[in-house]
Amino acid sequence: MGFKVPYHVVGKVYDTEYSGKCTVVEYIDNANVVVKFHYPECYVRCRMHHLKRGGVKNPLSPRVYGKGYLGVGKYQAEDKRYYKPWHRMLERAYSESWSKAHPHYEGVSVCTEWYNFQNFAAWCDTQEFFDEEDDRFRKYELDKDILVKGNKIYSPDTCSFVPKDLNVLLINSDKTRGVLPVGVSIYKKTGKFKAGVCLYGKPKHIGYYKTPEEAFQSYKTTKESYIKEVAESWKGKIDDEVYRALKYYSVDISDWYCF
Questions:
Q1: Which of 147, 103, 130 is nearest to 242 (CA)?
Q2: Which of 5, 34, 235, 248 could join 26 via S-S bond, C-beta 3.0 to 4.6 A?
Q3: Which residues contact 143 (CB under 8 A, 6 or more apart)?
Q4: Which residue, 72, 66, 112, 113, is CA-closest to 91?
Q5: Looking at beta carbons, which pairs linking 83-92 to residues 24 or more positions away fall under 8 Å?
Q6: pTM of the predicted model, to two decimals?
Q7: pLDDT for 72-113, tens place per residue?
Q8: CA dihedral defined by 142, 148, 149, 150, rounded to 10 degrees?
Q9: Which stretches of the chain drop beneath a pLDDT of 70?
């Protein structure tokens, strides 16, 4: 590469703590050493003392939940605006402890393009509401369910940044209703079916009905009206596509668990 190099350094193989072995292919001085990782193949410039300590990392090696890798580019893990939502996304898709605590995330995955942190961060920069805050100074959150109902894949085509109030808008719990439709539970004292919904963070009783289907229809009407109302309150502060998706959102009896 046009530089005079000491014969005893070039070609020497070093073990690293996180990325396996690497080979020195160029030595300029102790502050400028180029090593080659063979799998995944990548050239990294580093300091000699860092190399000797095994601290050099292959940016193409998947170290985040076995899938995510930093990649080569301008974005750094130290910038938490990008790294935090990326790491959280991978956690929800591939963390065993997360899956055990949140079994409704079973089957969720991330598109291969976003395994590379650089690609995810670059996409963030194209989003109008990335790094936005609501009136309570809470950062907008990465959502994958509003644009595509029932979606289980984090990808550029399915995700958007939305305020927390919208991110939890479509969450339903099945802890109390068992096998009943969403929004419906049984009132044991009378055997009737109770419809209830959460509005602005507070539970609201809708009514009692003879059949679960009747209770669900009342829930559906109330929930859809509420979703439209919330969408309208955020108009102009969310993506137009998100706004339209919420305005035309339909609650179905098969919506066992939205997340």
A1: 147
A2: 34
A3: 159, 160, 161, 162, 166, 167, 242
A4: 66
A5: 83/117, 83/121, 85/124, 85/141, 85/142, 86/114, 86/117, 86/120, 86/121, 88/142, 89/114, 89/120, 89/142, 89/154, 90/64, 90/65, 91/65
A6: 0.86
A7: 999 999 999 999 999 999 999 999 999 889 888 889 999 999
A8: -80
A9: 1-7, 171-178, 256-259
